[in-house]
Structure formats: C-alpha cells, structure tokens
Amino acid sequence: MGLAVDAGARLDRLPISSFHYRIFWLVGAGMFFDGYDLYIAGGVLASAIQTKFTTAPQNLQFISLTFVGMTLGSLITGFIGDRFGRRFTYQVNLLIFGLASLAAAFAQDMNQLIACRFVQGLGLGAEIVVGYSTLTEFVPPRTRGRWLSMMAFLTVMGFPVTALLGYLIIPAWGWRPMFVIAGIGSLIVWYLRKNLPESPRWLESQGRIAEAESLMTLIEKEAAGGRALPPIVVPAAIAQVSALDMLRPPLLQRMLVGSWVLITINTLIFGFVIFLPQFFLRQGLTIASSLAYTLVLSAGSLVGCALGAYLSDAIGRRASIIGASVVTIVTGYIYARFNAASDPAIVLSVGCVLIVAIYVQTAILFGVYTPELFPTEIRLRANGICNTLGRGATVVSPFMVGALMTSYNLPGVVWLMIGLVLVQILMVWAWGVEPRNRGLEDVATAKA
C-alpha cells in the first residue's frame, strides 16, 4: 500500500460524523431493497401456485434461476468493482434490478416472470457484494462490526417488510404489486445515490493518489466539524497482493472459510427460511395463515441481526459465529424432531429462536466477516468469488429441498442444514481470523 495518502489510517481515526451516516443510509437503502427483492419469492410463489399462474416445477426454476443470476452477478461485480471502482458498480447493479423488478410486475406468463427474475438476480448478486465491501472501507475498526451488522439489519428488514406487505397485499390484490414496490423504490435510491463518493482506499490502491488525497481532505473536513482530529497511526507498509495470491496461503484458507460460510448461510436462508410459506401450505394451512406465520417468525430475523451487531464487536466475529451455529444445531434438531409445522407453540417459540440464530450468522457472515478478510486491492474480487460459490450452492438447493421434502418432509431439510453448520464451526475454528478492533490493513496480514 502506498504511503502518499495513508487513506486507511486516516479513515480509521476519524470520529463518527454526518459523513458516515450519509454513506450508511444511502448504501443501506439500496441494500434494503436488495433484501426485499430476495425475500419476495416466498409469498409471491405461494400465491402464484394457488392462482394456477405457475406450477411447482416452475417455482423451482424461478428460485434456481434467481440464484444463477445472483451467482453471475456476484462474480462479475467482484472484477468490475476492483477494476472500475465501488461507486460505478453499485449504481449499475441497482439500476439493473430496479428496472427488472418493474418488468416482472407485468409478466404475462411464468416463463416471462422467470426471465425477469434472472435479470433481477444479476443486480441482486452484485449489490450484496459491493454494498458491504464499500461500507467496510469507510467505517473505523472499533465499531466496524456494529456498522456492518446494522447494514445487514437493513437488508434483512426486507424479510418482515415483505412478509407484512405480502400479508396485506397478496390476498386482496395478488403478487404483482410486490414487484412494483421493489422497482420504484430501487430507482428512487439509484437517483439519490449518484452523489456517493468513491472509496479513498480503492483510489490509493489504484495509484490515483491525487484523487484519493483530494477526497480524504473533504472527508476529514466534514468529519472534524471544526475540531482537531486524532493523530494518524500509520501501519507498517505491506506488499500489495494480486488475484493469484488468492490461490496461495494465507489467502487461500480465507477463501475457503469465506466460501463455506456463505454456502452455509445461503442454504439456511434460501433452502429453509424462504420456503416457510410453502412448508406451511404443505401442512394444510391457508395462504393467509401461512403468510401470518411467516410474518411472526420474520420478527426473529431483526432480533438476530441486532444481536449480531452487538456481539460482533463485544465478543468478536469468530466466537459469535460459532456460538450462533451451536444454537442453530440445537434448535434445528428440536424443530425437526417435533415436526414443528403441526404445532403452533413450537412454530412460535423454537422457530423464533432458530430464526434468531440464523440471522446472527447472516448479519456477521454477509455483512461483517467475509468483506473484512481480504486486502483492499482484491476485496471485491475475493468477496465476489466467495459469494459466487455461496450463491452457486443455492442454485441446486431448491431442488434438494424439494426432494428432501418429498421423501423426508421438513426433518430432512433441517438435517441438511445441521450438517452444513457443523462443517462451518470446524472451518471457522481452525482457519478463521479475528478482525475485531483491527484496521483492515492489519487484518490483511493477520495470522489469527
């Protein structure tokens, strides 16, 4: 990293100011609609199959092609974001899924809806990579876990908001208004977000020293608010890395950890959580009751993200991930053992604890841990590859879940989740690094 600007050290010592809140809310608004669009599938597909607009095999294609699009979007964005910058990338992807959402609202048949969903997936996969990575490069290390977990909180808010709107809108007006809301909201944020700055860390890593220095001067002036800033603590110089370094230790182990934890959490969400309305329909509940159950459980997602925001800085990333994983295994076993969907008491008690544990992991793994693992010059590429493998696993998970539901009902699905989480615990314990209270440049060279 060049020493002419020391963007990382200068950003890390800034007091929290209006600058940080502006970055958070403008990036976070796009992430909210990303989350809204992700979770829209559950209620939409349950409604579409009841109105004969779709069939069960087409529903699986809808979900699977969403993830194909997200997989490609994650991979492409990583390379574009490191080559052309964070600012350019997060504007393009938001425009893509905003326009595709509006097109989906007017689909004339399920094949058209599936095609629109694939295009949406390209933007959705891109947003989750560039949004978290961008915020990572702006916020100070002492509260970075909290900021990024709260970004995940905004993203996950799409779950209860989708569930609430689905409960209020779908039984009366059908599923099309759900896509209209996503499209209009995304395009409004796209317009507002045009004035977000580029990352000074990225500018410096690209050798664009004058631009990085000019931007840092403006950021420091706003953050200082007329007061003296803390002194700059310049870290020891570190060698720049290239994409090939991702194939060699220690980055190789980080790639393996980042990929597996995202495979696991994607499968937990999109092989279990997003299927909740359909699980309940299979147990004989009406569409309204199914959406009401999902709405109640979705409250646990916000509790989980808020808890993750506290734990990630209070006890660290690794301890939080492993602890939440253990809770997931225990409550998942109870949920499967007692066939929760047939007992409302278990749905509302054990089910909520299970959702909380899953979303503690969601907040930390998506929002905090994976973007922190890699140096600035390859952050989006490495994070994009990890997300690509995570999304790639969910391309097949709808079909796996469908087969397990047919043969083993809900317990079969839960046992798959438990197996993935067990491996996650072992990998984070053996190879995971701890980024708590460390600058990104320190984490880049950390051994543990």
The unreliable regions are none
CATH architecture: Up-down Bundle
User: What is the percent of helical residues?
Assistant: over 70%
Number of domains: 1
CATH class: Mainly Alpha
Compute the separation of the termini in Å: 21 Å
Taking all Cα atoms into account, the compactness measure Rg is 21 Å
Describe this structure in words.
The chain is mostly helical and 448 residues long. The protein has a single domain, classed as MFS general substrate transporter like domains (Growth Hormone, Chain: A, Up-down Bundle), CATH 1.20.1250. 77% of the residues lie in helices and 0% in strands. It has 18 helices and no strands. Helix 3 packs parallel to helix 5, helix 4 runs antiparallel to helix 5 and helix 4 runs antiparallel to helix 8. The model has no long low-confidence stretch (mean pLDDT 89).
Condensed summary:
With 448 residues, the protein is mainly alpha-helical. Helix content is 77%, strand content 0%.
Topology:
Elements: H1 7-12, H2 18-50, H3 56-84, H4 86-105, H5 110-136, H6 144-156, H7 158-173, H8 176-192, H9 200-205, H10 209-224, H11 251-271, H12 276-282, H13 287-314, H14 317-337, H15 344-348, H16 350-372, H17 379-431, H18 440-445
Helix pairs in contact: 2-4, 2-5, 2-6, 2-7, 2-8, 2-12, 3-4, 3-5, 3-17, 4-5, 4-8, 5-16, 5-17, 6-13, 6-16, 7-13, 11-16, 11-17, 12-13, 13-14, 13-16, 14-16, 14-17
